[in-house]
Design brief:
The protein is α+β, with helices and mostly antiparallel strands. The protein is built from 8 helices and 6 strands.
């Protein structure tokens, strides 16, 4: 999210990379995000694993159902709908990811940069000109609600989530369209389900 914090002066930028894009590259994702933040001065943002959507297919019943199921099984997988998120950018971050970006203004609402660094303890905090990037562990994690060992790898995400909880949006809209009658029995990310999903790492444990 980019802008001054005023409702009429905000925009957003997103970028996708193949999952193996940074393996052989000298500059890794955290350094790239830090460099971009120095130039763009974002208000807030995030980076990690994201489920990409196929243009023209993302609103189909099958895609909506699969996206919901993936999101519920793999908590570290970011589920997005940027057009809907854009309505809430001025209100704060929607949650955490492997890299969570916060400008100085949002850090001040959490007690200031030094306070946040103290709460992060041994987790890295990458400064940029105008804010900081909170890094939830050495590598991004998908987790797996069907595998307790993999889910335990998300403990650092939960630590960061507890830190930013006071500024996290609690009443985000739903991101999925209504399903056709033959699929109405299936769940989707309506407002209630999406708010609960956004709270998946919060101290409340998935309660919006």
């Amino acid at each position: 999210m980019l802008g001054t914090g005023h409702n009429d002066n905000i925009s957003y930028l997103y970028c996708q990379f193949p999952i193996d894009f940074f393996i052989e590259r000298e500059e890794k994702l955290p350094a790239l995000v830090q460099r971009w933040c120095d130039k763009l001065k974002p208000e807030h943002g995030y980076a990690g694993f994201w489920l990409g959507r196929s243009f023209g297919y993302e609103k189909s019943d099958e895609a909506v159902i699969l996206e919901y199921r993936f999101g519920q099984r793999f908590p570290g997988l970011q589920i997005n709908k940027f057009t809907t998120h854009s309505l809430n950018l001025h209100r704060g971050p929607k949650g955490v990811d492997w890299l969570t970006i916060l400008s100085d203004s949002w850090l001040e609402r959490l007690g200031g940069l030094e306070h946040v660094k103290a709460e992060m303890d041994d987790l890295p905090v990458l400064d940029y000109d105008g804010g900081a990037i909170l890094r939830a562990g050495p590598m991004p994690q998908l987790g797996d609600n069907e595998n307790p060992d993999l889910d335990a790898a998300l403990s650092d995400y939960r630590r960061v989530a507890a830190i930013i909880e006071p500024v996290r949006i609690k009443d985000h809209q739903g991101i999925h369209p209504i399903l056709s009658p033959s699929y109405r029995h299936e769940k989707r990310f309506d407002a209630h389900e999406y708010q609960a999903w956004l709270a998946r790492f919060s101290p409340q444990g998935g309660q919006p």
